[in-house]
Amino acid sequence: MKFIETRQFRLRIWGQQLMLEVDQIHVAYGRVKALYGVSLTANAGEILCLLGRNGAGKTTIMKSIMGLLPITTGTVKLEGKTISKLPAYEVPRQRIGYVPQGRRLFPELTVSENIEMGLMACNEHNETREWVLDIFPRLRERLNQQSSTLSGGEQQMLATARALCLRPRVLLLDEPTEGLQPSMIEQVRQVVVRMKTEGVAIILVEQRVDAVLSIADNVTFIENGRDMKTVTANYLRENPALLKEHLGV
Fold first, then answer.
1. pTM for the structure as a whole
2. Model confidence pLDDT, tens digit, residues 46-60
3. Which domain holds residue 244?
4. Angle, CA of 76, 63 and 82, to the nearest 5°
């Protein structure tokens, strides 16, 4: 395995197709700067985890990729095509699924209707609906139930199912295990690993370091709106002092 690193980009060379490239993006909330030249890549069939303290900029990176926050300079590319100039509603149509922190379901709609909303983005139909419900059989039992009445774990399932309705090439997950009981955390983990084996490029924001190290391929540390270092998960397991250096744990 070989890494090429410059200030402009970080590329993994291993005969694997580059899927998503974030290149030197700067983002601000009004006059308040939030990201300062962040660069990262996510390859097909790999999991990249973003680790950092609260407020480091991890969620901002995810929102910027999805076009929910304007990028002042820099680019986001999918398979070499610039997508950072697209309006936000066009980004999911590039088959980039997003499971935001807090789930952000349509609470007044049923489980079935939330799934239909996901299918509409890329004009997917019944075959994809059945595929998603096979992944989350509990949702099949609750199709007519209003989503706001689901348990926290079931809502996380539904948010993930909605993203999978795009048949995504890239999947972004922001704190998917937050507030979940261990059994639900394991189900989320299994789905993430399954998507990896199916060739999806995954970017994961997660605070539970043990969960990260069990499934991630690479880890990027985010600090004060900057990407400080990218290492393999194996390297991080062998050098836990990095966690104290960048996270204080």
1. 0.88
2. 999 999 998 999 999
3. 1-85+207-249
4. 15
